[in-house]
Amino acid sequence: MRILGLSGSLRRDSHNTSLLRAAANALPSGVELELYDGLDELPHFNADLDVEWAPEPVQRLREAIADADGVLIATPEYNGSIPGVLKNALDWASRPFPDNALRGKPVAVVGASTGMFGAVWAQAEVRKVLKTIGADVLDGELPVAHAHIAFGDDGLLADDGMRNALDELVALLTARAGAAEVVAT
């Protein structure tokens, strides 16, 4: 089983990419997390570019989502909402509607920020967009506040409660993805 990890931050030392790496450590045996690294290659969404054949970076994103059994999105919060690069990726992934790669796909959303709220608003916005797209969105969230001090030297969440919450959310996502995989076969 394969889970696709999408980080809404392009920053080299992104706390949200670190959160995805921490989630990879919580995956059960036989499940791998693939960190998607091409969001910065996507052109701005323009339906005119998607008429006959989408640009190659868009095709690559759509194929990565389609090939995954589930998706884990880690988002920072920019100006109280979704980072532009992540919203752009979701707009591209939502096409063609209604038969897009995210339709019915199990997706969980987590978030980290250096502030005290852990990207709660951005997570809610991402879940709203995903539901509109038709994804099978898990209700759980994980707001990692003060992300600049939330990770230990081992790359894992330093707080036991946060680490357990991430483990539970990842377990729920893999269970939902496994159930979806069985239904699809």
Provide a short characterization of the protein structure.
The chain has 185 residues and is α/β, with parallel strands linked by helices.
Key terms:
185 residues; alpha/beta; Rossmann fold; 5 helices; globular
Description:
- With about 180 residues, the chain is α/β, with parallel strands linked by helices.
- It has one domain: Flavodoxin domain (Rossmann fold, 3-Layer(aba) Sandwich).
- Helices cover about 40% and strands about 15% of the residues.
- The protein has five helices and six strands.
- Strands 1, 2, 3, 4, 5 and 6 form a six-stranded parallel sheet that branches.
- Strand 4, helix 4 (about 120-135) and strand 5 form a beta-alpha-beta unit.
- The longest helix has 25 residues, at about 160-185.
- It is globular.
- The protein starts with a strand and ends with a helix.
* Percent of residues in beta strands: 5-15%
The averaged pLDDT comes out at 95
Find the CATH topology: Rossmann fold
Number of domain modules: 1
Percent of residues in helices: 25-40%
Categorize the overall geometry. globular
Distance between the termini: 13 Å
Largest sheet: 6 strands, parallel
Gyration radius, rounded: 16 Å
Q: For this structure, what is the CATH homologous superfamily?
A: Flavodoxin domain
* Topology order in helix (H) and strand (E) letters: EHEHEHEHEEH
Helix/strand structural class: alpha/beta
- CATH top level is Alpha Beta
Count the DSSP helices. Answer: 5
